[in-house]
Amino acid sequence: MKTIDTKIFSTVIGLELIDLSIKFKHTEKDRQIPNKIQQLIQNEWQMRPKNIGKTFAGNHNYVPLFRYEGYQEIEDSILISLGETDYKETYGTNIQNPDLAAEYGDEILGNALGICSLIITSDNDLLLFKRSEIVHEKPGYWHTIGGHLEKNKRAILHGPSVEKLLTQELHEEIPNIKPRISELRHLCLICPKDSRKHEICCYLKIDIETEKLKEITLNFEHNNYKVILGNLSCIVDFLIENAGNVVPGTLAALYYYCQLRFDHKEISKYWGSIE
Question: What are the chain's domains?
Fold first, then answer.
């Protein structure tokens, strides 16, 4: 029997959110960014590969995004505090220079809060996408759907919506089918060691059977997709073959999804506890 080296999960284990609801609190936090860091961010943006600009509609890099500030556990929910950042700031710090945090602290990072989700078909198979070479983060890696929470008037008044964001992303990734979400569950909150950019990982179930996925067309962000049969053995085979080529949020979502879906005795046959 094939088994997984548990080291692949060590960088993505975070706060388990299974059975917890998520609430958001907007905070006005005044962050002082040194001039030399602001200049570094500007330089990184100017030197970015030209194809990065193609992945955003309009002037998306200046659209205000919600910044992760911290969380509190309150009974059966988690309250996440949100400030403000934008993609340009996050690109120049978390993505290109995450080590700045060691010298200046996490306050220096753009840290736009990410949201990602596994896609589960109505017959319990998993759908993953392979990122094309024109995307800015992790080109060529397998991943789920995801994005960042935009800070707009509606989000400030009514609170950001994880479901709304994932519905939008789902329709962008599978534009010719546009499935509906029949179930959505939170899995974890992670902070990958390579970027230190916080991300909420979920899984969502769609009202489409696996057979229907043969009709999907991919958008420019992806050059391939894979359906993984929804049994533990097939998920393990995928992880063994691709563990070094899966984005952290997807790796974390797969780990916690297996903890939720399968019997722990069965899981222990393939991997033990994560230290």
Answer: 6-268 (3.90.79.10)
